[in-house]
Each structure stands twice: as C-alpha cells, then as structure tokens.
Amino acid sequence: MLDIHITEFYNDSARILLSLYRSFPRQISMYVEDISGLDTPDEYGMHSERHLACFNTFLWLKEEGLIRFSDIERQIGFDQCVLTLEGFRWLASFDHEGGPKFVDELELAVKQSDSILVEQLMKSVFQAQSNIKNAQ
C-alpha cells in the first residue's frame, strides 16, 4: 500500500520550510491553502482531510522546533511564522562534501516534483533534529 499521506507530509514540510526561508528573518502570515491547495469544506464547514493534514504539518514542525508562530487563524493560517535558528541552520547548511546548500537541493527537488528526493532530504532534517533532541 502506498502511503500517499506520508508523501504529502514530506512535500508540505518542504514547502513550508522553503517559504519561510525565502522570507527569513521576517515573520509572515502563512495560509494552509498556499501549501496544500484550495480547500473544499463540506456542507457543515469542516475542512477536507488534505487541508487538515497540512494544517497539522505546521503544528508538528513547531513541536519539533523548526518553525514558530504567534497565533492560529481558525485552522486556515498562522500569524507571524518564522524559522527557528535550528530550521534556518539546516536549510542554510552545505552538504558534507562542500556541495550545494541544503535549501538549494530541496528547492530543486520541489520544483521538479521529485517526491522521492524531497522525502530523502526531509528525512535527513528530521533525523538530525531527533539526534539534537536526544543529545539534550
């Protein structure tokens, strides 16, 4: 079985981090639809599963210490979003052999819609973040 929701999670994470890197160090408002696409709430006003998954990706990135924001706007957006120092360090870092910056590799993978490479790159960030938390 394909884990499409996991692929979407990695792609959403990458797009969120790239958006914040482009505006760093400014704090910006970010909207879930800008990352996940147009939402189509049901007749009761409940958001789609896709929208909620992307919304929760923002929350998870915050819990993991890669982003921060000041407020949530009714499950549609986040106010004063910015990368944390850790998030910025990862995106601005160079690979171990002096190659391109991580952010450049991630940007290219997202532009090319290369979900496999996006997943590999995001896994490396999450693994490194986990190692940092365990060392503390």
Please provide a brief summary of the model.
With 136 residues, the protein is of the alpha+beta class. It has helices at residues 4-23, 32-36, 49-63, 85-92, 102-111, 115-135; strands spanning 28-31, 67-68, 71-73, 77-83.
Secondary-structure topology with pairs:
Layout (H helix, E strand, L loop, with lengths): L3 H20 L4 E4 H5 L12 H15 L3 E2 L2 E3 L3 E7 L1 H8 L9 H10 L3 H21 L1
Antiparallel strand pairs: 1-4, 2-4, 3-4
Helix pairs in contact: 1-3, 1-5, 1-6, 5-6
Describe, in plain words, how this protein is organized in 3D.
The protein has one domain (4-129). 58% of the residues lie in helices and 12% in strands. The chain has six helices and four strands, in the order αβααβββααα. The protein has helices spanning 4-23, 32-36, 49-63, 85-92, 102-111, 115-135; strands at 28-31, 67-68, 71-73, 77-83. Strands 1, 2, 3 and 4 form a four-stranded antiparallel β-sheet that branches. A hairpin with a 3-residue loop joins β3 (71-73) and β4. α1 (4-23) crosses α5 (102-111) and α1 (4-23) packs across α6. It starts with a helix and ends with a helix. This is Transcriptional regulator. It comes from Reinekea marina.
DSSP helix fraction? 55-70%
Largest sheet: 4 strands, antiparallel
| Rg, Cα atoms, Å | 15 Å
Average pLDDT figure: 89
Class by alpha and beta content: alpha+beta
User: Element order, helices and strands?
Assistant: HEHHEEEHHH
Distance between the termini: 36 Å
* Number of strand elements: 4
**Regions with little confidence, pLDDT below 50 for 5+ residues:** none
Looking at the structure, what is the overall shape?
A: globular
How much strand?
5-15%
Query: Number of domains in the coordinates?
Result: 1
User: Total number of helical segments?
Assistant: 6
